[in-house]
DNA sequence: ACAAAAGTGTTCCCCCTACACCCATGG
DNA sequence: CCATGGGTGTAGGGGGAACACTTTTGT
């Protein structure tokens, strides 16, 4: 609201103070498995449990800025490199008792990073780790972070259909095979390669070929793939619809 | 984050307190024009300007609860009736100087109401008014509310494509013509009636016919239309794609 | 020579678009 | 009986799914 309905003579400090934080669901794809960056909690509450990285919003920064700062800290990337990553606001979680200690309102963000050479980074954050989302994560996350993570994962999957989001998981130059890997990993389905290729190339400016192609990347055999980089178009039209999956797929490991 | 990265001996009160508020973009369709519920500001800053209704999040309620409370207050509806309305969180706006007086973080919501018999409601809120979004609104909104409104409007338009959102603008029982009106009004395009009908009926459980049909509603001539009500399905699949509009349409009136 | 991965071509079918056409009611 | 809005039918075209096929590399 910002300004109306303020009772006369209202004093903001009369209210119990709200702490405002950001929580980050940072995703990457490593070896065809979706991973999230998590932190093992040291103190109570939820000592020993996994939690999403995050931190307080400082008095002079927006939630977006705080999220970017935290992203850089937790991944060990420089501010410049981090600002090139995809980072988007998810939604805000504000249940009065989501933190037993005090009133904390948290603005959740989802971030996408390519497979980093270093596991996490030797910077400020000590214990951030990539955790696979393949069902092996059994213990519930701290606070309402399980829900946040599930929401973030769903949002990412949905946006793959009609945006260039998937390239956020890729290095600056990538093959169409790598891009398809991302889709298959996030969605947990197999896609037809010829059709995938056509759809991705159908939207002008979605990906653009880089001239000097065919550098050998994935150690292996087979015809060397052409390299592409992300184009200007951020919306994929027509969208790349996810095949309907009747029942299967492992959505486990997030029940918190 | 909720709990990690707290500096040792951290005292939350050492931080400048954040006020947390909700802002509501409440939409309705009246006479084939999209309207928003706005409030004329009395005091500075932005005295005399239009603003979105909203208010503080109280210490013991979530943002969702606060939004519902405000929605009921501003529309004059009972809490029960209001809770039947569509109300969804949009995103959070947290620029440090979005309010010149103090640090205010606002969680924005979008709400949809059917065309109410009463203009706004004789309840608590004095001056809430429906304002047409047809380009006649020239003055910029207070604070960053112009941006919030634009974001809300875009989100609503987008979600019409693949959800049952449009029925939020309709009374409990409605004709397919009325439903089509909603789409055409929000999107600002004309749709082919036979095809609209088929698409809406294609998803089982999206709308369901109510037995005793053909009540005369819109004073008028023509064959009486069958009545439908919202079904259980909330996703429209396949989606009802918005025709590509090359250039025209009035998106004005929101530049703030 | 064979496997593996990239890339191209082609067929079939479904759905969407566009209209034409009938039905029911009010004036 | 005509205007108006509700409802059904149908021909045609575009695009996606499925799959066959060629190309280029490593072993």
Q: Could you explain the architecture of this structure?
A:
Chain A is an alpha+beta fold and 256 residues long. Chain A has two domains: 16-139, Nucleoside Triphosphate Pyrophosphohydrolase (Alpha-Beta Complex); 165-230, Orthogonal Bundle (Arc Repressor Mutant, subunit A), CATH 1.10.10. The first copy, chain A, contains five helices and ten strands. In chain A, strands 1, 2, 3, 4, 5, 6 and 7 form a seven-stranded mixed beta sheet that branches. Chain A has a three-stranded antiparallel beta sheet with strand order 8-10-9. In chain A, β1 and β2 (33-40) form a beta hairpin. The longest helix of chain A has 16 residues, at 145-160. Chain A is elongated and about 60 Å long. The two termini of chain A are 33 Å apart. Chain A binds a DNA duplex (27 and 27 nucleotides) through α5.
How would you summarize this macromolecular structure in one to three sentences?
The structure is a homodimer of 256-residue chains. Chain A has helices at 63-75, 79-83, 145-160, 176-187, 193-202; strands at residues 19-30, 33-40, 50-51, 54-56, 86-93, 104-112, 128-132, 174-175, 207-209, 227-230.
Give the oligomer, counting copies of the same chain as homo and different chains as hetero: homodimer
- Residue fraction in strands of chain A: 15-25%
Number of strands of chain A: 10
CATH architectural group of the largest domain in chain A: Alpha-Beta Complex
Instruction: Specify which chain pair forms the largest interface.
Output: A-B, 54 and 54 residues
DSSP summary: helix tally of chain A: 5
What is the name of the CATH class of the largest domain in chain A? Answer: Alpha Beta
In terms of structural class, how would the helical and strand content of chain A be classed? alpha+beta
CATH topology of the largest domain in chain A: Nucleoside Triphosphate Pyrophosphohydrolase
Radius of gyration of chain A, in angstroms, nearest whole number? 20 Å
Low-pLDDT runs of chain A: 3-10, 248-256
- Biggest sheet character of chain A: 7 strands, mixed
Q: Roughly how much helix do the residues of chain A carry, as a percent range?
A: 10-25%
**First-to-last CA distance of chain A:** 33 Å
Helix and strand run of chain A? EEEEHHEEEHEHHEE
| Broad shape of chain A | elongated
Q: CATH superfamily assignment of the largest domain in chain A?
A: Nucleoside Triphosphate Pyrophosphohydrolase
- The overall pLDDT of chain A, averaged over residues, is 87
Q: How many domain modules of chain A?
A: 2
Keywords (chains A, B): Hydrolase
Organism (chains A, B): Streptomyces finlayi
Pfam families (chains A, B): NUDIX, WHD_NrtR
GO molecular function (chains A, B): hydrolase activity
């Amino acid at each position: 609201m910002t300004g109306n309905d303020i009772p006369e003579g209202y004093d903001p400090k009369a209210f119990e103070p709200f702490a405002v934080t950001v929580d980050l669901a940072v995703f990457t794809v490593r070896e065809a498995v979706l991973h999230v960056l998590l932190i093992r909690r040291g103190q109570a509450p939820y000592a020993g449990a996994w939690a999403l990285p995050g931190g307080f919003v400082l008095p002079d920064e927006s939630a977006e800025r705080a999220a970017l700062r935290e992203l850089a800290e937790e991944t060990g990337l420089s501010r410049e490199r981090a600002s090139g990553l995809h980072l988007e606001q998810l939604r805000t979680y504000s249940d009065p008792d989501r933190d037993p200690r005090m009133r904390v309102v948290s603005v959740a963000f989802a971030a996408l990073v390519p497979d980093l050479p270093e596991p996490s980074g030797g910077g400020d954050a000590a214990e951030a780790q990539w955790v696979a989302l393949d069902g092996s994560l059994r213990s519930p996350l701290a606070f309402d972070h399980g829900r946040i993570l599930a929401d973030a994962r769903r949002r990412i999957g949905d946006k793959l259909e009609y945006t260039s989001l998937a390239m956020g998981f890729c290095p600056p130059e990538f093959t169409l095979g790598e891009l398809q890997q991302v889709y298959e990993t996030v969605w947990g389905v197999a896609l037809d390669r010829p059709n995938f290729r056509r759809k991705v190339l159908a939207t002008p400016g979605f990906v653009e070929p880089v001239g000097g192609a065919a550098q050998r990347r994935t150690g292996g055999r087979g015809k060397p793939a052409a390299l592409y980089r992300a184009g200007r178009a951020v919306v994929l039209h027509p969208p790349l619809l996810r095949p309907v999956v009747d029942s299967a797929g492992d959505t486990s490991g997030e029940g918190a």
